[in-house]
Amino acid sequence: MATAALPAPVRRALDAANNGDTDAFLAVFTEDGAVNDWGREFRGGDAIRGWSDAEFIGKQVTLDVTGTRADGDTVTVSAQVGGSGFNGPSDFAFTVAGDRVSLMRITG
Fold first, then answer.
1. Per-residue pLDDT tens for 75-101?
2. What is the DSSP string of 2-48?
């Protein structure tokens, strides 16, 4: 699956992260959406913002997509992560709910 073929909410999440736009990143999630970062869960806008400020967009994250795959309502994006936080390969599994993301799960 090419990046252009990704569901719109996944593309918006990736673009927001790469553009350093926290508000746009948060707007991608459902009201009760969550980020699961290697087993640590951050649910709802305030919790996701706190996590992102400390560990994601706040660390000038960059995501260079290296692959994608889909399985039902979950799209997994493999990326080379850069920035001033974690650097290296990671997978981001996005559970899509309509035009939003209900869960972004980060794994290795």
1. 999 999 999 999 999 999 999 999 999
2. -GGGS-HHHHHHHHHHHTT-HHHHHHTEEEEEEEEETTEEEESHHHH
